[in-house]
Amino acid sequence: MIPYGFQWIDKEEIDAVVGVLRSDRITQGPRVEEFERAVADYAGARHAVAFSSGTAALHAACAAAGVGAGDEVITSPLSFVASANCALYMGATPVFADIEPASLTLDWREAAKKVTPHTKAVIPVDFGGQPCALDEITLLARQHGLVVIEDAAHALGAEYKGRRVGGQADMTVLSFHPVKHITTGEGGMVLTNDAALCEKLARFRTHGIVRDPAKLTRSDEGAWYYEMQDLGYNYRITDIQCALGMAQLAKLDRFVARRLEIAGQYALAFSSLPGLRLPQEPAGTRSSYHLYVLQLPIERLKGGRRAFFDALVERKLGVNVHYIPIHLQPYYQRRFGCRRGDFPLAEGYYDRAITIPLYPKMTDEDVRYVIASVSDVFRQLWT
User: Fold this and answer.
1) DSSP output for 73-112
2) Which domains, from first to last, does the chain contain?
């Protein structure tokens, strides 16, 4: 089976992890800060705080933004559920706005229609590695006093207007799940240029506890003394994970280059298939292709997407569908009354979408097999 995504672990990663296991500190040690600094430098951000997962990082970003009960957070319905759930964790209400059909990211015009006096933040999602319209979203946010939390879990290594994603929003959230561009097993990070936000994020990650004598309310208690000044969580990442991340980061540009190469081969091979819509990169952006999603002309395929999907699985391709729009999940329908028809562009995309394999460790033979399989199944089902 060729999966839709897969990690690439070599001797360098194994040696890095073993080195930490043989050291004195396997967690809360120097590797965490080293990894944070390296990712921040790569992305062009001043500060970084690493977390145990991308979901934890989203939760922390909402907390640092001051999101709370009675607030609203605007986001895209086309994402994994964590992009909206993070608002719920803070007692706020996620408010969806439809997508742009070209980029598949949050449409800032639709988002503008959803701003109310209760709106606190906006979470645009860099879908599949494609950066959102960050300039327009930032301008909208500044006009209304909102915090921009860019969900770039898919977009490490992508570029927006000549700059790497990660250093332009108020906060940018990354994920290091194994199918992402680099992995720490599980893990996440928030990038920011704001020192005050960085401090809040770090505190939230560690139970809300403060040890810096300069920030304690009682600084003369002794060297053992600490204070829980806010409610936080244990969202720490380990030195073991960060050692893995450092070894992966050294290969990130090569990983992204290979993703772009495969995406180019797919675009060339599939451009002649009638009615098939391929990923697009709006002017001024460069996707890092976390996902390669085809939008099928389901009206012309015998059996529709289901038949196409099943036929590729029979050929040992681990295809997937990213994502079921969040507002169609039973929880959101039950709690908020969401229903099909609320966001027609996200729903129309979902009805046609299928994710095919794309990851750096794919061989040229793998790529040729995917191209041949997709093309053959498409022609067999075409009516």
Assistant:
1) EEE-SSS-THHHHHHHHTT-EEEE-PBPTTT-SB-HHHHH
2) 2-249 (3.40.640.10), 252-381 (3.90.1150.10)
CA-closest candidate to residue 158, choices 139, 174, 170: 174
- Is the alpha carbon torsion for 26, 196, 248, 290 positive or negative? positive
Q: By three-state DSSP, how is residue 354 classified?
A: strand
Residues contacting 339, CB < 8 A, separation 6+: 327, 333
C-alpha torsion sign, points 119, 192, 169, 125:
negative
The 10s digit of each residue's pLDDT in 320-338 is 999 999 999 999 999 999 9
Mean pLDDT of the chain: 97
- The 10s digit of each residue's pLDDT in 211-231 is 999 999 987 788 899 999 999
- Give residue 364's identity as a one-letter amino acid code: D
Counting every residue, how long is the chain?
383
